[in-house]
Prior knowledge:
- The complex is a heterotrimer of chains A (about 270), B (about 325) and C (about 375).
- By secondary structure, chain A is mostly helical.
- Chain A is about 75% helix and about 0% strand.
- In chain A, helix 8 runs antiparallel to helix 11.
- The two termini of chain A are about 40 Å apart.
- The mean pLDDT of chain A is about 85.
- Chain B has helices at about 25, 35-75, 80-85, 100-130, 135-150, 150-170, 180-205, 205-215, 220-230, 230-250, 250-255, 275-285, 290-325; strands at about 85-90, 95.
- In chain B, helix 4 (about 100-130) crosses helix 7 and helix 5 packs antiparallel against helix 7 (about 180-205).
- The longest helix of chain B is centred in the first third of the chain and has 39 residues, at about 35-75.
- Helices cover about 45% and strands about 15% of the residues of chain C.
- In chain C, helix 14 runs antiparallel to helix 15 (about 330-340).
- Classes of the chains: A mainly alpha (about 270), B mainly alpha (about 325), C alpha/beta (about 375).
Amino acid sequence: xxxxxxxxLLPLGLLLFLLGxxxxxxxxxxxxxxxxxxxxxxxxxxxxxxxxxxxxxxxLWTAIxxxxxxxxxxxxxxxxxxxxxxxxxxxxxxxxxxxxxxxxYGLLGxxxxxxxxxxxxxxxxxxxxxxxxxxxxxxxxxxxxxRSVPRSLREACYALGATxxxxxxxxxxxxxxPGILTGSILALSRAMGETAPLLVxxxxxxxxxxxxxxxxxxxxLPIQIFNWVSRPxxxxxxxxxxxxxxxxxxxxxxxxxxxVLRHRFQKRFV
Amino acid sequence: xAPSSSAVRVPSExxxxxxxxxxxxxxxxxxxxxxxxLLERLxxxxxxxxxxxxxxxxxxxxxxxxxETLEFARVVPLRRLLLDTQWTPLFHDQHFGIWPLIAGTGxxxxxxxxxxxxxxxxxxxxxxxxxPPLLRRYLKPALELLAGIPTIxxxxxxxxxxxxxxxxxxxxxxxFNSLGAGIVLGIMLVPxxxxxxxxxxxxxxxxxxxxxxxxxxxxxxxxxxxxxxxATSGIKASVILAGSRAIGETMxxxxxxxxxxxxxxxxxxxxxTMTAYVVQVSMGDTPTGTLEYRTIFVVGAVLFLMTFAMxxxxxxxxxxxxxxxxx
Amino acid sequence: xxxxxxxxARLPALLGWALLSLLTCKKHAAGTxxxxxxxxxxTPSSLTDAPASLADRFRGAAVIAVDGSSTVxxxxxxxxxxxxxxxxxxxxxxxxxxxxGFKKFCSAEVAISGASRPIKPSEVLACERAGIEYIELPVxxxxxxxxxxxxxxxxxxxxxxxxxxxxxxxxxxxxxxxxQVRSGWPDAEIHLFGPGVDSGTYDYFTLAVVGTEHAxxxxxxxxxxxxxLVQGVSxxxxxxxFFGYAYYGExxxxxxxxxxxxxxxxxxKGPISVSPExxxxxSYNPLSRPIFVYVSLAAAARPEVEAFIQFYLREAARLVxxxxxxxxxxxxxDLVWRRFAxxxxxxxxxxxxxxxxxxxxxxxxxx
Lengths: 270, 327, 367
């Protein structure tokens, strides 16, 4: 039993060590200037603002693309298509897509969005690729949320003369909203940390301005970290560590937002 | 006894009237008085379109990979992928044998499984059999946290900490190697194996354990001779799924494992995985239509086939777990 | 209840707008911090030379797209950084390698391409077909440095013949150990690191060492990113690699250069170590070469691009040295400046590509 306990504590201990090591490397570099500055060839002047803004824009547009379609798909699968052949076919597809490596999504984005549709190396192409990547997660978590609404509520709506869509819109969806929001935000948090698809789709590593349009060249937090990790000088290692701290804090904030939102919405229905 | 995990789902709804196989049957009519049947139908189609996006994604992936692979096959016969043992598609002496990339992928994935499997399984056993419920409530999400960390952080860890530490132990270790990358990859996979195995162990009915105790078996023999074998399907499913994840992992190996395709099983030397090759070439933003560009799709296609097969196998094992929990 | 649900439905949209406005506010705020003044919104010139695509319609202010050699990248990066304080134009720099950069240059995807070798005949043809006229501007000298790990105490110098035996195509899968290159060296694996096939450094090295451009073995760690090569060699006792001098200079504590002997006595007897002096006086042979920046004639018509190039040439002497390359002599920069001023198109190498052992002065002077 002691061995088993060790097996649980070992990875956790390594995780703590990793975080501690990253934090200690980063502490020298983390200041307001780093957060608001631009990349530079001088490691101590380098900042992360374009990457931060790029990541924020990507998350925003990924949300715009993925959340409505994901929730829509979940509604269809839960409310309309249950038990049908179409639904089970779609479900198999979603289960497959959840297991596809992220770099393959990058190839899909490269072939379809960047080349075939001519979007180029833009925020739009990056966000579309990430949206496809997180779509299975959004669908799965939305389905869970929809499923948690008791059947009796729907039946009550029908008894009162509501159509299916009226029942969904007025009763089921608002009740499932906390779960849907939580799931979507967690999916977006995952999208924020993805590097490989963005590398393939072509986020640049040297961007010293903020993207001002959807078609603009952009960079993102994981890409900037990757660029700094690739540089052999010790000072850039510290930059990479600081970048990692910023990334993890951002993801933590998103997750915290998810929990807070779920709490707020749940209070109304208790 | 219905377990409270998401691995086994017991449907809670009474079965609806089965739709007929005609097109109309695919779109069951809404119960109750339709306020506006046209709107209802339109909405239904709209939602169906959202759901079909996932089908379109799969179709897109297959189409893109197949198209570029076929274009590649026009210039280079596909059997050269399997018959050659060197991968130098961009160089003067062109070789298109994909085995070095598969070897690199297999090596890192193999090392990661060697790390993740024992730790993950033992952790699952602890959480399922030994842990008091309070501890379980905190330890389980803590382990899940490991899975939520972006892989680039793990890559940083592998390059900056693990490899130098290993170099102190193994002096002949190169700066880029599959050992460090594999170990870190394994740590990343532990939550996957532990979580899914724990679900499988939890699903084993208590009656089996009670029976073993009744026959006089101690706790450890019960676990290893009765519970574990019963949960084999679920454990196999989790292992295969983790293996599929290991094969598809990109950032850890791109940063720490190297970019030298070589057919070797030596964990101390630089290698290149399939995923690292895709990233390496596409970072140079090769123009459409060149052989270089097509090779990344060919490698992507092989990767897709491998992970697809493993996922399908894992799904089959999971179904076996669901259908016959007593075996 | 209905009102509340409608309000709730609007919440995500509100959040989105709030976030978007926050971001645009941040952009202007960043401008006041001195990092970047606000940019002009419509610049017709940026739409005339680039092919119209969906992305172009969304493109904001003028973007100067630079791509190409990773050898030239540190110079371009330094220039772009200094340029930011004098101009609103945005500079992006990709690192696709000299070959990759030319491919994009000759399809009008980028305005400026850095190159660590002159434009070669196939690229001249591609540019001609696309109607792209280019102005070739030498900006610095580089001595390709052959490096090993500091703990490598056996390979202090090598001859060009040994390098050829190590790097030529026939060496693939055959020459795998140090003692196969020179007997007396350790019987251990040799781990090779070098630039990728899109790299001008790779092209020039193969031409100078192997004798045929683009001909080399394929079983080494190849990367367009020279930083990866530095990392590889500096952490591996058995490694050998080559890249531009600036990358050695930045990491001199973690690397050791190998002195090269070209077995010709007329330009320096014996093995010559790479240094600014040996590159300038021509004794570090055959691995010294000029590195370039190419700008298209159409792009040079844009005021922001012209300003950028002028800034580049003006600051090159200072920044080249700071970055770690070898500056051209003062009068050569004058000749290059005049070249740009009169928009002289074509290559001083005649479009025939790299030539080993020629100086830029002689070619510019002959014009």
